[in-house]
Amino acid sequence: MKKAIKKSLLFVAVLVTMVNYASNVSPLNEDDNVKKTVLTLNNVKEGQQLLIKDNNQVILYKEAISKSGEYKKGFDLTALPNGDYYFELNKDIVIEVIPFKVKNNLVTFNKEDKTQIFKPFVTLKNNTLFVSSLSLNASPIEFVIYYKNGSTTELIHEENIKDKVNIQKAYTLDATKKGDYVFVTKTQNRVFTNNINL
Predict the structure, then answer these.
(1) How does pLDDT run across 160-197, given as a tens digit for each residue?
(2) How many CA atoms lie within 13 A of 23 on its CB side?
(3) Model pTM?
(4) C-alpha R_g of the chain
(5) How far apart are the C-alpha atoms of 120 and 129, rounded to whole Å?
(6) How far is CA 108 from CA 51, 99, 105, in A?
(7) How far apart are CA 130 and CA 23, in angstroms?
(8) What residues does 39 pair with on adjacent strands?
(9) In the record, which residues are listed under signal peptide (predicted)?
C-alpha cells in the first residue's frame, strides 16, 4: 500500500512539474510571427522584380519573381529604422507601389496609399517616334531625346508637360541622322530610358 501511495505521489509530482513547465514555455515561433509581415501579391509573372526601397529610393531588397501566379512571403520589417518605405512590384508596363511606415519597431500599411506608376510606351515607325504615357494623378512629366554619335551625345529635344493624365506624342527624327537615339522619361522621381536605333 505504501508503495502505491509513493508511486501516486511521485506521479502527481511529475505531472505538476510538467504542467508548470508547459505553462511557462511560449511557442517557439511566437516572436517570428509577431515580427513578420506577410506580403501577398496576385497575378505576378516570372521575371518581374520585387523591391523594398527607402524614402530616398535606395534599394534595400531585390528579388526576381520565380513563379507566375500568387506571391506570398513573410518579411521582418521591424528591424528597419523609423521612416517611410515602399514595396515595389516592377511589371512590364506598370510599377505598383505599396508604402509602409516603420515607427518604434511597429510596421503600418495604408492600402489607400497604394499607387501605380505607368511606364511610357515608346515605338518607332519609319523615322517617327510615338510615345504614350499615363499618369493617373497628372504628375509632371519630362521627355528628353538624345542622339548618340560615337562617343558624343547631342540633346535633340526636351519637353515638360504638366497637368495631363493621358499623353500621346509623336516626334519626327531626322531621317538623315541614322544611328542610336535615347528617349528619356522623367516622372514621379523615376527615370525611364528607351534605346532606339534609326
Answers:
(1) 999 888 999 999 999 888 889 999 999 988 899 999 99
(2) 6
(3) 0.69
(4) 29
(5) 12
(6) 18, 9, 10
(7) 69
(8) 73
(9) 1-22
**Checking DSSP bridges between strand 83-90 and strand 141-149, what pairing results, if any?**
unpaired
pLDDT in tens, 122-142: 999 999 999 999 888 888 999
**C-beta neighbour count of 171 within 10 angstroms:** 18
Cell of 118: 505607368
Contact 89, 44 (CB under 8 A): yes
Q: Strands 180-187 and 83-90, how do they pair? A: unpaired
C-alpha cell of residue 62:
531585390
DSSP H or E stretch at residue 45: none
Count the residues in the chain. Answer: 198
Q: Cα(141)–Cα(192) distance, rounded to whole angstroms?
A: 11
